[in-house]
Protein backbone atom coordinates (compact mmCIF):
# COMPACT_ATOMS: atom_id res chain seq x y z
CA UNK A 1 0.00 0.00 0.00
CA UNK A 2 1.41 3.37 -1.00
CA UNK A 3 1.44 5.97 1.74
CA UNK A 4 -0.38 9.25 1.28
CA UNK A 5 -1.71 12.00 3.51
CA UNK A 6 -5.05 10.21 3.75
CA UNK A 7 -3.45 7.12 5.27
CA UNK A 8 -1.99 9.22 8.10
CA UNK A 9 -3.80 9.73 11.41
CA UNK A 10 -4.92 13.24 10.47
CA UNK A 11 -5.77 12.03 6.98
CA UNK A 12 -8.14 9.27 8.04
CA UNK A 13 -9.91 11.68 10.41
CA UNK A 14 -10.34 14.20 7.59
CA UNK A 15 -11.46 11.45 5.19
CA UNK A 16 -14.06 10.13 7.63
CA UNK A 17 -15.34 13.65 8.33
CA UNK A 18 -15.67 14.51 4.63
CA UNK A 19 -17.43 11.23 3.81
CA UNK A 20 -19.80 11.52 6.78
CA UNK A 21 -20.64 15.17 6.08
CA UNK A 22 -21.24 14.59 2.36
CA UNK A 23 -23.32 11.46 3.03
CA UNK A 24 -25.56 13.35 5.47
CA UNK A 25 -25.78 16.32 3.07
CA UNK A 26 -27.12 14.07 0.31
CA UNK A 27 -30.19 13.47 2.49
CA UNK A 28 -30.63 17.24 2.73
CA UNK A 29 -30.47 17.35 -1.07
CA UNK A 30 -33.23 14.78 -1.51
CA UNK A 31 -31.99 11.27 -0.70
CA UNK A 32 -34.01 9.37 1.96
CA UNK A 33 -33.57 10.60 5.54
CA UNK A 34 -30.65 8.98 7.39
CA UNK A 35 -29.80 7.32 4.07
CA UNK A 36 -27.64 9.81 2.25
CA UNK A 37 -25.50 6.88 1.19
CA UNK A 38 -26.32 3.27 2.03
CA UNK A 39 -24.49 0.80 -0.20
CA UNK A 40 -26.91 -2.02 0.68
CA UNK A 41 -30.07 0.06 0.20
CA UNK A 42 -28.78 1.58 -3.01
CA UNK A 43 -27.76 -1.85 -4.35
CA UNK A 44 -31.31 -2.98 -3.53
CA UNK A 45 -32.67 -0.01 -5.51
CA UNK A 46 -30.40 -0.95 -8.41
CA UNK A 47 -31.65 -4.54 -8.29
CA UNK A 48 -35.19 -3.21 -8.50
CA UNK A 49 -34.40 -0.90 -11.39
CA UNK A 50 -32.97 -3.86 -13.32
CA UNK A 51 -36.05 -5.97 -12.58
CA UNK A 52 -34.41 -8.41 -10.19
CA UNK A 53 -37.31 -7.63 -7.86
CA UNK A 54 -40.63 -5.84 -8.37
CA UNK A 55 -40.99 -3.89 -5.12
CA UNK A 56 -42.14 -0.67 -6.77
CA UNK A 57 -41.07 1.58 -3.87
CA UNK A 58 -37.36 0.71 -4.14
CA UNK A 59 -36.35 0.89 -7.80
CA UNK A 60 -33.76 3.39 -9.00
CA UNK A 61 -30.28 3.33 -10.53
CA UNK A 62 -28.49 5.20 -7.74
CA UNK A 63 -25.77 7.49 -9.15
CA UNK A 64 -23.93 7.20 -5.82
CA UNK A 65 -22.93 3.61 -6.57
CA UNK A 66 -21.70 4.67 -9.99
CA UNK A 67 -19.82 7.70 -8.65
CA UNK A 68 -18.00 5.78 -5.92
CA UNK A 69 -16.67 3.34 -8.52
CA UNK A 70 -15.61 6.17 -10.84
CA UNK A 71 -13.86 8.08 -8.05
CA UNK A 72 -12.08 5.00 -6.72
CA UNK A 73 -11.01 3.96 -10.24
CA UNK A 74 -9.50 7.38 -10.90
CA UNK A 75 -7.74 7.39 -7.53
CA UNK A 76 -6.29 3.89 -7.91
CA UNK A 77 -5.16 4.60 -11.48
CA UNK A 78 -3.38 7.83 -10.47
CA UNK A 79 -1.58 6.13 -7.58
CA UNK A 80 -0.84 3.03 -9.69
CA UNK A 81 -2.79 0.83 -7.27
CA UNK A 82 -5.06 -0.52 -9.99
CA UNK A 83 -4.16 -4.22 -9.96
CA UNK A 84 -6.56 -6.67 -11.64
CA UNK A 85 -6.71 -9.87 -9.58
CA UNK A 86 -9.10 -12.52 -8.33
CA UNK A 87 -9.71 -16.22 -7.86
CA UNK A 88 -10.00 -16.31 -4.07
CA UNK A 89 -12.99 -18.59 -3.33
CA UNK A 90 -15.41 -16.70 -5.62
CA UNK A 91 -18.46 -18.87 -4.84
CA UNK A 92 -18.04 -18.38 -1.09
CA UNK A 93 -17.56 -14.64 -1.54
CA UNK A 94 -20.75 -14.52 -3.61
CA UNK A 95 -22.76 -16.09 -0.81
CA UNK A 96 -21.10 -13.94 1.85
CA UNK A 97 -22.33 -10.92 -0.12
CA UNK A 98 -25.73 -12.58 -0.55
CA UNK A 99 -26.21 -13.12 3.20
CA UNK A 100 -24.67 -9.77 4.14
CA UNK A 101 -27.42 -8.15 2.07
CA UNK A 102 -30.15 -10.22 3.70
CA UNK A 103 -28.95 -9.15 7.14
CA UNK A 104 -28.79 -5.51 6.04
CA UNK A 105 -32.31 -5.55 4.63
CA UNK A 106 -33.73 -7.16 7.77
CA UNK A 107 -32.11 -4.33 9.76
CA UNK A 108 -32.83 -1.78 6.99
CA UNK A 109 -29.34 -0.48 6.40
CA UNK A 110 -25.70 -1.42 5.84
CA UNK A 111 -22.87 -0.37 8.22
CA UNK A 112 -22.66 3.04 6.49
CA UNK A 113 -26.36 3.66 7.11
CA UNK A 114 -26.05 2.32 10.65
CA UNK A 115 -23.68 5.19 11.40
CA UNK A 116 -25.92 7.67 9.55
CA UNK A 117 -28.95 6.49 11.50
CA UNK A 118 -27.09 7.02 14.77
CA UNK A 119 -25.96 10.45 13.52
CA UNK A 120 -29.61 11.30 12.85
CA UNK A 121 -30.64 10.39 16.39
CA UNK A 122 -32.13 6.97 15.57
CA UNK A 123 -31.58 4.91 18.73
CA UNK A 124 -32.37 1.73 16.77
CA UNK A 125 -29.08 2.31 14.95
CA UNK A 126 -27.22 1.72 18.21
CA UNK A 127 -28.60 -1.83 18.35
CA UNK A 128 -27.48 -2.34 14.77
CA UNK A 129 -24.01 -1.16 15.76
CA UNK A 130 -24.01 -3.64 18.66
CA UNK A 131 -24.77 -6.37 16.13
CA UNK A 132 -21.92 -5.25 13.87
CA UNK A 133 -19.52 -5.32 16.85
CA UNK A 134 -20.60 -8.84 17.83
CA UNK A 135 -20.41 -10.08 14.24
CA UNK A 136 -17.02 -8.46 13.77
CA UNK A 137 -15.80 -10.09 16.99
CA UNK A 138 -16.87 -13.52 15.79
CA UNK A 139 -15.09 -12.82 12.51
CA UNK A 140 -11.91 -11.81 14.32
CA UNK A 141 -12.07 -15.08 16.27
CA UNK A 142 -12.10 -16.99 12.98
CA UNK A 143 -9.26 -14.89 11.53
CA UNK A 144 -7.18 -15.74 14.60
CA UNK A 145 -7.89 -19.43 13.95
CA UNK A 146 -6.22 -19.12 10.50
CA UNK A 147 -9.44 -18.52 8.58
CA UNK A 148 -8.65 -17.81 4.95
CA UNK A 149 -10.41 -17.77 1.59
CA UNK A 150 -7.07 -18.22 -0.16
CA UNK A 151 -4.86 -15.75 -1.98
CA UNK A 152 -5.96 -13.82 -5.04
CA UNK A 153 -3.82 -14.03 -8.17
CA UNK A 154 -2.90 -11.17 -10.47
CA UNK A 155 -4.41 -11.39 -13.95
CA UNK A 156 -2.27 -11.17 -17.05
CA UNK A 157 -5.25 -9.65 -18.86
CA UNK A 158 -5.48 -6.18 -17.31
CA UNK A 159 -8.74 -5.45 -19.14
CA UNK A 160 -10.58 -7.77 -16.74
CA UNK A 161 -10.11 -5.24 -13.97
CA UNK A 162 -12.03 -2.63 -15.96
CA UNK A 163 -15.31 -4.53 -15.60
CA UNK A 164 -16.59 -2.45 -12.64
CA UNK A 165 -16.02 0.90 -14.37
CA UNK A 166 -17.49 -0.40 -17.64
CA UNK A 167 -20.59 -1.68 -15.81
CA UNK A 168 -20.86 1.64 -13.97
CA UNK A 169 -20.73 3.66 -17.19
CA UNK A 170 -23.39 1.44 -18.76
CA UNK A 171 -25.59 1.98 -15.69
CA UNK A 172 -24.99 5.73 -15.96
CA UNK A 173 -26.13 5.66 -19.59
CA UNK A 174 -29.27 3.74 -18.59
CA UNK A 175 -29.95 6.22 -15.77
CA UNK A 176 -29.58 9.29 -17.96
CA UNK A 177 -31.53 7.87 -20.91
CA UNK A 178 -34.30 6.31 -18.75
CA UNK A 179 -34.73 3.78 -21.53
CA UNK A 180 -37.58 1.23 -21.36
CA UNK A 181 -36.76 -2.12 -22.99
CA UNK A 182 -40.43 -3.13 -23.14
CA UNK A 183 -43.79 -1.68 -22.15
CA UNK A 184 -43.87 -3.36 -18.74
CA UNK A 185 -40.19 -4.17 -18.39
CA UNK A 186 -36.97 -2.63 -17.11
CA UNK A 187 -35.60 -0.10 -16.53
CA UNK A 188 -37.87 0.64 -13.52
CA UNK A 189 -38.00 3.93 -11.58
CA UNK A 190 -39.97 4.32 -8.35
CA UNK A 191 -42.69 6.96 -8.38
CA UNK A 192 -43.20 6.79 -4.59
CA UNK A 193 -41.39 5.46 -1.53
CA UNK A 194 -37.63 5.52 -0.81
CA UNK A 195 -36.71 4.89 -4.45
CA UNK A 196 -38.40 8.12 -5.47
CA UNK A 197 -36.41 10.17 -2.93
CA UNK A 198 -33.41 11.37 -4.90
CA UNK A 199 -30.86 14.10 -4.79
CA UNK A 200 -30.25 15.66 -8.24
CA UNK A 201 -28.26 13.25 -10.39
CA UNK A 202 -25.29 15.54 -11.01
CA UNK A 203 -24.98 16.44 -7.32
CA UNK A 204 -25.13 12.76 -6.33
CA UNK A 205 -22.60 11.85 -8.99
CA UNK A 206 -20.08 14.58 -8.12
CA UNK A 207 -20.36 14.00 -4.36
CA UNK A 208 -19.98 10.24 -4.71
CA UNK A 209 -16.97 10.59 -7.03
CA UNK A 210 -15.32 12.68 -4.31
CA UNK A 211 -16.26 10.06 -1.69
CA UNK A 212 -14.94 7.22 -3.84
CA UNK A 213 -11.68 9.06 -4.47
CA UNK A 214 -11.11 9.86 -0.78
CA UNK A 215 -12.24 6.45 0.46
CA UNK A 216 -9.81 4.72 -1.90
CA UNK A 217 -6.94 6.95 -0.82
CA UNK A 218 -7.67 6.49 2.90
CA UNK A 219 -8.76 2.81 2.83
CA UNK A 220 -11.85 3.94 4.75
CA UNK A 221 -13.87 0.97 6.04
CA UNK A 222 -16.65 1.15 8.62
CA UNK A 223 -16.56 -2.51 9.67
CA UNK A 224 -12.75 -2.48 9.71
CA UNK A 225 -12.67 0.61 11.90
CA UNK A 226 -15.15 -0.80 14.41
CA UNK A 227 -13.46 -4.21 14.43
CA UNK A 228 -9.87 -2.98 14.68
CA UNK A 229 -10.54 -0.53 17.50
CA UNK A 230 -12.47 -2.91 19.73
CA UNK A 231 -10.77 -6.23 19.13
CA UNK A 232 -7.27 -5.34 17.95
CA UNK A 233 -6.66 -2.07 19.83
CA UNK A 234 -5.70 -0.47 16.51
CA UNK A 235 -7.57 2.83 16.44
CA UNK A 236 -6.31 4.20 13.13
CA UNK A 237 -9.46 3.42 11.11
CA UNK A 238 -11.65 3.88 14.19
CA UNK A 239 -10.72 7.57 14.16
CA UNK A 240 -12.19 7.82 10.68
CA UNK A 241 -15.41 6.10 11.75
CA UNK A 242 -15.81 8.45 14.73
CA UNK A 243 -15.12 11.46 12.50
CA UNK A 244 -17.77 10.15 10.06
CA UNK A 245 -20.41 10.09 12.83
CA UNK A 246 -19.44 13.47 14.31
CA UNK A 247 -19.46 15.21 10.92
CA UNK A 248 -22.83 13.69 10.01
CA UNK A 249 -24.26 14.81 13.37
CA UNK A 250 -23.04 18.37 12.73
CA UNK A 251 -24.74 18.43 9.32
CA UNK A 252 -27.97 17.01 10.76
CA UNK A 253 -28.04 19.49 13.65
CA UNK A 254 -27.26 22.40 11.33
CA UNK A 255 -30.12 21.41 9.01
CA UNK A 256 -32.61 20.57 11.81
CA UNK A 257 -32.62 16.88 10.89
CA UNK A 258 -31.37 15.50 14.22
CA UNK A 259 -34.10 13.76 16.24
CA UNK A 260 -33.28 11.43 19.13
CA UNK A 261 -35.90 8.68 19.45
CA UNK A 262 -36.65 5.05 18.72
CA UNK A 263 -40.14 5.57 17.38
CA UNK A 264 -41.11 7.04 14.02
CA UNK A 265 -37.60 7.09 12.61
CA UNK A 266 -37.40 7.12 8.79
CA UNK A 267 -37.26 3.70 7.14
CA UNK A 268 -36.58 1.86 10.40
CA UNK A 269 -38.26 -0.58 12.78
CA UNK A 270 -37.98 -0.94 16.55
CA UNK A 271 -37.49 -4.70 16.96
CA UNK A 272 -34.39 -4.62 19.16
CA UNK A 273 -33.62 -8.35 18.98
CA UNK A 274 -33.66 -8.58 15.21
CA UNK A 275 -31.91 -5.26 14.75
CA UNK A 276 -29.04 -6.85 16.67
CA UNK A 277 -29.18 -10.37 15.24
CA UNK A 278 -29.52 -9.27 11.61
CA UNK A 279 -26.47 -7.04 11.94
CA UNK A 280 -24.49 -9.80 13.63
CA UNK A 281 -24.93 -11.63 10.33
CA UNK A 282 -24.01 -8.57 8.30
CA UNK A 283 -20.98 -7.71 10.46
CA UNK A 284 -19.77 -11.32 10.35
CA UNK A 285 -20.26 -11.67 6.57
CA UNK A 286 -18.42 -8.42 5.85
CA UNK A 287 -15.60 -9.37 8.22
CA UNK A 288 -15.20 -12.80 6.60
CA UNK A 289 -15.28 -11.04 3.22
CA UNK A 290 -12.58 -8.59 4.43
CA UNK A 291 -14.42 -5.31 4.02
CA UNK A 292 -17.63 -3.35 4.52
CA UNK A 293 -19.87 -2.75 1.47
CA UNK A 294 -18.20 0.54 0.64
CA UNK A 295 -14.78 -1.07 0.87
CA UNK A 296 -15.90 -3.96 -1.34
CA UNK A 297 -17.13 -1.49 -3.96
CA UNK A 298 -13.87 0.46 -3.83
CA UNK A 299 -11.71 -2.67 -4.01
CA UNK A 300 -13.64 -3.78 -7.09
CA UNK A 301 -12.78 -0.42 -8.67
CA UNK A 302 -9.11 -1.18 -7.95
CA UNK A 303 -9.42 -4.28 -10.12
CA UNK A 304 -10.27 -6.79 -7.38
CA UNK A 305 -12.68 -9.22 -9.01
CA UNK A 306 -13.21 -11.06 -5.71
CA UNK A 307 -14.82 -7.88 -4.37
CA UNK A 308 -16.89 -7.58 -7.55
CA UNK A 309 -18.18 -11.12 -6.95
CA UNK A 310 -19.09 -10.09 -3.38
CA UNK A 311 -21.02 -7.06 -4.73
CA UNK A 312 -22.82 -9.26 -7.27
CA UNK A 313 -23.80 -11.53 -4.37
CA UNK A 314 -25.27 -8.47 -2.65
CA UNK A 315 -27.17 -7.53 -5.81
CA UNK A 316 -28.71 -11.00 -6.13
CA UNK A 317 -29.36 -11.09 -2.39
CA UNK A 318 -31.31 -7.84 -2.69
CA UNK A 319 -33.51 -9.24 -5.44
CA UNK A 320 -33.99 -12.48 -3.51
CA UNK A 321 -34.89 -10.60 -0.31
CA UNK A 322 -37.76 -8.70 -1.89
CA UNK A 323 -39.00 -11.53 -4.11
CA UNK A 324 -39.25 -13.89 -1.13
CA UNK A 325 -40.44 -11.38 1.49
CA UNK A 326 -37.25 -11.44 3.56
CA UNK A 327 -36.75 -7.67 3.78
CA UNK A 328 -38.21 -5.85 6.76
CA UNK A 329 -40.60 -2.92 6.65
CA UNK A 330 -41.24 -0.18 9.18
CA UNK A 331 -43.59 -2.69 10.85
CA UNK A 332 -40.64 -4.98 11.59
CA UNK A 333 -39.00 -8.12 10.24
CA UNK A 334 -40.92 -10.92 8.55
CA UNK A 335 -40.80 -14.55 9.73
CA UNK A 336 -39.10 -15.43 6.43
CA UNK A 337 -36.48 -12.77 7.04
CA UNK A 338 -35.78 -14.10 10.52
CA UNK A 339 -35.23 -17.63 9.21
CA UNK A 340 -33.03 -16.33 6.40
CA UNK A 341 -30.82 -14.53 8.95
CA UNK A 342 -30.47 -17.74 10.97
CA UNK A 343 -29.55 -19.71 7.82
CA UNK A 344 -27.02 -17.01 6.93
CA UNK A 345 -25.43 -17.18 10.38
CA UNK A 346 -25.13 -20.97 10.09
CA UNK A 347 -23.51 -20.58 6.66
CA UNK A 348 -21.01 -17.99 7.92
CA UNK A 349 -20.10 -20.00 11.02
CA UNK A 350 -19.51 -23.14 8.94
CA UNK A 351 -17.32 -21.14 6.53
CA UNK A 352 -15.45 -19.60 9.47
CA UNK A 353 -14.63 -22.97 10.99
CA UNK A 354 -13.86 -24.84 7.76
CA UNK A 355 -11.95 -22.38 5.57
CA UNK A 356 -8.38 -22.52 6.85
CA UNK A 357 -5.05 -21.30 5.57
CA UNK A 358 -3.00 -24.29 4.43
CA UNK A 359 0.70 -24.17 5.29
CA UNK A 360 2.73 -26.36 2.97
UniProtKB/TrEMBL annotation:
Tell me which positions the record assigns to the signal sequence. none
Instruction: Provide an example Pfam family for this protein.
Output: Sulf_transp
Transmembrane stretches in the record are 91-114, 126-143, 155-177, 197-215, 236-260, 272-293, 305-324, 336-355
- Asked if the keyword Zinc belongs to this entry, the reply reads no
Q: Recite the UniProt keywords alphabetically.
A: Membrane, Transmembrane, Transmembrane helix
Classification via InterPro entries: Seleno_YedE, Sulf_transp_TsuA/YedE
UniProt protein name = YedE-related selenium metabolism membrane protein
Amino acid sequence: MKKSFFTSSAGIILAGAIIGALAAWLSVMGNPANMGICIACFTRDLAGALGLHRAAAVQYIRPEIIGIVIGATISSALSKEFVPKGGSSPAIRFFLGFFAMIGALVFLGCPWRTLLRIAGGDINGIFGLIGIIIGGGIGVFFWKQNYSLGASKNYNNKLVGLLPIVISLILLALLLSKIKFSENGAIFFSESGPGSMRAPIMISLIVSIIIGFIAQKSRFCTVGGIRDGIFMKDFHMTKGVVAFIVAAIIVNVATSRFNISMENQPIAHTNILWNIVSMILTGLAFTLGAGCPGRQLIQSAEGNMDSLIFILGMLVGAGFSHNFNLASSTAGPTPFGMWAVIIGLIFCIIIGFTMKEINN
